[in-house]
Amino acid sequence: MEEADHTDQARAAKRIVTLDELALHNSHESGVWVAISGKVYDISTFLSEHPGGEDILLEAAGTDVTEDFFDLHNDEAQELLPAYHIGSLGLTAKSGTELVTDQSQRHSFLRPDIWQQVTVLEKRRLSHNTILITLKWDHCEEFGLPIGKHVLLRARDPVSGNNIVRAYTPTATKDSLGEVDLLIKIYHKTDGRAGGKMTTTLHHMPLGATLELKGPVGTFEYLGKGKCHVSGKTRQVNRFVLVSAGSGLTPMLQVLRAIARDAEDSTECLLLYGNRHEEDIFI
Predict the structure, then answer these.
(1) Does domain 2-89 have CATH number 3.10.120.10?
(2) Average pLDDT score over residue span 57-81
(3) In angstroms, rounded to a whole number, what is the distance separating the alpha carbons of residues 117 and 96?
(4) Residue-wise pLDDT tens digits, 170-180
(5) Which fold has domain 98-217?
């Protein structure tokens, strides 16, 4: 067995994977490959073991995930990589500046492959542990977030200097282009629990500070009139039963708002919304 492992490692060391070949391996059927720091990994068998679920891995399948991997994972995750190594990337991935930098060529602000800079415009307290943050970008473009999708938010930890990345669902995009609202539940430090790294960073962040967004991400999208995409498949529904708690309400608000605004959308909705304490309710 040990000899076989050495043989596999030797083959992986010699194999060259092109960008086109990498891009073809982006699903359960084709296999899930990703590139990290110039090396290619087949993580198909790891999907069910991923602590964050397989959806986020499928979103990244077939691409270079170097930056996101080191932002989101610790040394323990890096130690797992050699077991999935299958080759080296033959060509470097395109940099963000090569993809699209001309603002006139873009129709929406969000890009799934580039971190976009935003500024903290306003912070408003909704409850004792919930704030609403308004983020603004320079160019008056549509946000470009499909209904049901979410974004990745990246901030710099003021203590360690490391990047922190978390997924959030905007409550709404502003009608005036160039702004978006994020609902943030603050996890304060207690005797038995450390404070949330991202939420405490956002809580203390001053107006005018900069953050970064990337997206859309997620495997659900509401297309209207009961039609939706779920994990790549189109479904038609007559009724949604929406179950949420705390700030987990925000993805539901997207769908509810879209249905309410469309006079021709007769999709029924039942919302079950829970909180631990009455003071936690923010709507």
Answers:
(1) yes
(2) 80
(3) 13
(4) 886 655 578 89
(5) Elongation Factor Tu (Ef-tu); domain 3 (2.40.30)
Asked if residue 222 belongs to a known ligand binding site, the reply is no
Residue showing tokens 């939706």? 228
Residue 173 bridge partners (DSSP): 180
- Domain spans of the chain? 2-89, 98-217, 220-280
Each residue of 239-277: pLDDT tens digit? 999 998 888 888 898 899 999 999 999 999 999 999 887
d(CA 167, CA 78) in angstroms, rounded, equals 21
Residue of 76, 68, 63 whose CA lies nearest to 35: 63
Determine if residue 197 is labeled as part of a ligand binding site.
yes
What is residue 55's three-state secondary structure?
Answer: helix
- Average pLDDT score over residue span 196-208: 89
252 labeled binding residue:
no
130 is in an annotated binding site: no
Cα separation, 245 vs 214, in Å, equals 25
Residue that the structure tokens 């949420």 belong to: 244
Confidence label for 99 from pLDDT (cuts 50, 70 and 90): very low
DSSP reduced 3-state for 171: strand
Taking Cα atoms as reference points, which of 29, 32, 24, 23 lies closest to residue 50?
A: 32
Determine if residue 81 is labeled as part of a ligand binding site. Answer: no
Q: Any binding-site annotation on 166?
A: yes
Indicate the residue type of 7. Answer: T
220-280 — its CATH code? 3.40.50.80
Is 149 annotated as contributing to ligand binding? no
Residue type, 132: L
């209904």: which residue's tokens? 147
Look at residue 85 and tell me whether its pLDDT is greater than 90.
Answer: yes
